[in-house]
Structure formats: C-alpha cells, structure tokens
Amino acid sequence: MTKLLEQAVEAARALPPEMQDALARMLLQFAGEDQPVIQLTAEEESSFEASLAQADRGEFATDEQIRAIWAKHGL
Known about the structure:
Layout (H helix, E strand, L loop, with lengths): L2 H11 L3 H14 L11 H15 L6 H10 L3
C-alpha cells in the first residue's frame, strides 16, 4: 500500500460510519468490484415517487420560494 493510500485510509477512519461506507463502495467500484444497487427504504421510495408525481404535474417551487429558502440558509 502506498503512503498516500495509507494517509487516505487513516483520514477516513475519522469520518462517520455512513461516509466510511460510501468511500469504501467507491473504492471497491474503482478497483473493479461491482457494488450492489442501493436499496431505498419504503419511506424513501414513497417520497421519491411523490416527488416524481409532483414534477409530472409541473408542480415546482416558484422563484420566490427558492429565494426564501436560500435566504433562510444565508445563501
């Protein structure tokens, strides 16, 4: 293992478990090992389908609503 890869692994150890898993999946995929498709929870799938239905109906946030969200977060 190269020193740079050792440094990256050491830095990854300090990350939250979810980020460690995401990095591990990317590294394995980069190394040529296929990774399973991420499975959505029932709640995530329902939310995703609701969002697609809103988009199909043309229900998008107005420019004013977007500006309000940006302002709320200091953007």
